[in-house]
Amino acid sequence: MYAPGVDPAKVRQTYDLEWKRFIGARPRTMALLERARGHMPNGVPMAWMAFDQEIPAYIDRGEGAGFTDVDGHRYFDTNVSDMVMFCGYGNAAIVEAVAERARKGTQFLLPTEEAIEVAEELARRYPVPLWQFTLSASQANVEAIRIARAATGREVALLFDGHYHGHFDEGLINLEDGQLVPVQRGLAKATAGKVRIAQFNDVDGLRRALAPRDVAIVLTEAALTNNLHLLLPQPGWHKALRSLTRETGTVLAIDETHTHVVGPGGAIRRFGLEPDIVTIGKSIAGGVPLGAYGLIEPLAREIDVKSKRVAATGGTLFGNPLSMAAARATLTRVLTPAAYDHTAALGARLADGIETAIRGSGLPWTAQRFGPRSGHWYGPEPKTGLQALALCDKLLTAAQRVWMFNRGVWEALPGAGPTMAVPAREADVDHYLDAYASFLRAVAA
């Protein structure tokens, strides 16, 4: 669909002109892409780098709240590497911790003291006492599902429409026209039979989905942020979710990978939630690969090695000393209460400016607000995934992204929203808003 209030012809023209400008100003990136295609499909190390940018920028270095490409263009980074670089680039505390650990050894396949300290800090922030580590939040979610299946003897994982929890099989099933379908090719045909999808904020629908008592786990974000821009919980939603999962013997897992940026205990503390499992990743190690999941004590028994039937978890590089050292520095020296207060204030400033720009352009859109993250919906605030998906306009979103690129802002991925990193400043927010307001003027009907 086309977003209300814009001229589709202007959007198309803007998109085409801005991409031509982007390409013309980046000869070094274009040369590297051409060279890379000889040995990397799409000219990039993984397909995602081509999906969302169409033509990516090859990057030289990052510093503070932004980075510089190989052609010398500096960007204020509001995508923060899809939340991985919320702490910013080249943070001294993290660099120091990583360098010191690298000199001492990066892998032993044995524990180091840093792992204990990270687990203790996560247990202090979240209402689950026992923690394990992976290399990504995707892998943490895979292990959460396996543990829930082992504990319940059930197989179905329930997700909410518009979800994204990682690139694993169950997480790549979506609801389209009432049917469960794979997002991409290559999944086993039987995968859809192990997934059920309900609507976020729909208590009656959730009750029906759990009624057969065959669901091992409900996996959700506290607020859906990873694929729909933002879907906030409505009053009573989380209370009903917790009540119904307990009533039906279903494990409740909350994925904090994107939402932990709203405070020291993330959205879980903000909303006062009581999950059985917490999964997390992205920026908790300052950009060094790390995922983690916390468990209540009964579920932790499923991975007790004294048992003869341990749930399938683990990996050779999981819990490695380098990741642990980075996470210790990040959690204790960078992601402090003061840092969260600072980024939340910048997020509020950004949301105020977005709201002002929308009104000034006469668009019937709505600004988003969630801690350091802002953005907009192309209409009124949605309540369910179906409503949110109906507000998408792919071409308009793509046109905005390349417009912002050309004005020194690396815009958030489609389905995300601009996020203010720890080293960002008010001047960075104002830079974003100047570019954003000029885009709205360019495409408004």
In helices, the fraction of residues equals 25-40%
Low-confidence stretches are none
Note the gap between the termini.
16 Å
Oligomer: single chain
β-strand amount: 15-25%
User: Rg, please?
Assistant: 22 Å
Mean pLDDT: 95
Overall form: globular
- Main sheet? 7 strands, mixed
How do the helices and strands follow one another from N- to C-terminus? HHHEEEHHEHEEEEHEHEHEEHHHEEHHEH
Strand order of the largest sheet: 4-12-11-10-9-5-8
Structural class of the helix and strand makeup? alpha/beta
Number of helices: 15
Annotation, overall tally of beta strands:
15
Structure keywords:
single chain, 445 residues, alpha/beta, 15 helices
Describe the structure in your own words:
The chain is built from 15 helices and 15 strands. The chain is an alpha/beta fold. α1 (8-24) runs parallel beside α14 (394-405), α7 (203-210) packs parallel to α8 (237-247) and α12 runs parallel beside α15 (426-443). The model has no long low-confidence stretch (mean pLDDT 95).
